[in-house]
Amino acid sequence: MPLKITAIPMFSDNYAWRIEDVATGQVGVVDPADDTAVIAALDAAGGRLDLILLTHHHADHIAGADAVRAHYGAQIVGAGNDAARLPRLDQPVAEGDSVTLGSARAEVIECPGHTVGHIAFFFPSGPALFCGDTLFSLGCGRLLEGTAAQMFDSLAKFAALPGATQVYCGHEYTESNANFALHADPTNAALKARAETVKQLRAAGKATVPSRLSDELLENPFARAPDVAALASLRSAKDVF
Ligand code: ZN
Ligand code: FE
Predict the structure, then answer these.
(1) pTM for the model
(2) Ligand in closest contact with the CA of 58
(3) Topology of domain 3-239, per CATH?
(4) Among 187, 198, 171, which Cα is nearest to 221's?
């Protein structure tokens, strides 16, 4: 049975994600930072929440988690090795652990780089990847805590997932990412076409997330970086672009 996945826009450019396991009706939410927006969206969709999945400790991902848990009696899942900077975890998890949402299962992928305790959740039955601020549509997260080598390894783990995987990142950054991507890789025809599509979607006020993993591997310069040094120089260039 499929997953039903819906964006919950928050603040100026964040997304929380509602995930419903259609077979059982169980519901999860990824990174519910704005509890008012998230509770309104979840109530409009039936008023159920079982699981809160946290990707990393930044306030624009976790700030509403305690209030949302209290409202629904849901369980919070997050990185055990970063527990000191997260809300109290009902389920501390690590690389390779499985998280159950009704009949669905998510695999935990540790993906340090943006922060040292960053994790992602991969649902093979989507296939769907919830990767917070690690891989963005046409970009990647800033190296605020981790190293380029860590980010390179994290992106390599994602690259090994099925090409059909839908990538659900934490921000609507695609249009500005596309501008940098075109600057870094000006002859990439697939990227040029994608940038045009992104521009039209944004002009119409539509979301550009999720994206398809196989497209990221063709068009995203960070996902395409051949080695750690190339990724490091791309990331430094983007920081001041
Ligand atoms: Zn972040
Ligand atoms: Fe963020």
Answers:
(1) 0.98
(2) 1
(3) Metallo-beta-lactamase; Chain A (3.60.15)
(4) 187
Q: Which helix (H) or strand (E) holds 164?
A: none
Task: Report domain extents, the chain.
Answer: 3-239
**Ligand (nearest to CA of 111):** 1
Type of residue at 207:
A
For residue 208, how far is its CA from the centre of ligand 1 (angstroms)? Answer: 19
Q: Count of residues for the chain?
A: 241
pLDDT digits (tens, 9 = 90+) for 177-235: 999 999 999 999 999 999 999 999 999 999 999 999 999 999 999 999 999 999 999 99
Closest C-alpha among 120, 124, 191 to residue 155: 120
What are the pLDDT digits (tens) for 13-41? 999 999 999 999 999 999 999 999 999 99
Parallel, antiparallel or unpaired: strands 211-212 and 166-169: antiparallel
